[in-house]
Amino acid sequence: MSKTHLWEQKADSLLLCAKTQLGVPYKWATSDPGVSFDCSGFTYYVYNKFNIKSSRGAGNYKNYGKSIPLNESRKGDCILFTGTQKGDKSIGHIGIVVSNAKDKLYFIHCSSSSRHFGVVITEYYSSNYPRRFIETRRIF
Question: C-alpha angle 58/62/67, rounded to 5°?
Fold first, then answer.
């Protein structure tokens, strides 16, 4: 089995796991599958299920894997954003890339926004996330 095939198989399984949590509500400082998550609690839960080194804090993801240009990101990569505090440029939100093709990038994350609350899939380019984007990282 090729290395590419193994990576893709792991990414597909990881995303299948992540999607089982769609609709689970946001609650700060939690990582309780089927009950509630915050953004890093969600990504930690998903990556941890597949023995991928990750962190319970969004800001620590800058220390894992390697930075990847957004247009080269692929399913399973983590995508990092600033938080919602005006002027704060540190990492404050994280998601997992679902797909990236033909000017459409989708990511799954646990959002505290009243418009799309809890674990949701968001289309990056049609959202407000581009103005908060920091980087994508390949951690497996």
Answer: 130
Average pLDDT over residues 66-84: 97
Q: Is 0.85 topped by the overall pTM?
A: yes
* Mean pLDDT score of the chain: 96
HEC string of 96-135 equals EEEEEECCEEEEEEEECCCCCCEEEEEECCCCCHHHHEEE
* Contact yes or no for 140/127 (Cβ under 8 A): no
Taken in order 66, 92, 33, 15, the sign of the CA dihedral is negative
2-28 burial string, b = 16+ CB within 10 Å, else e? eeeeeeeebbeebbeebeebeebebbe
By the 10 Å C-beta count (0-12 exposed, 13-18 middle, 19+ buried), 61 is classed as buried
- Residue 120's φ and ψ, nearest 5 degrees, are -140, 165
What are the pLDDT digits (tens) for 53-64?
A: 999 999 999 999
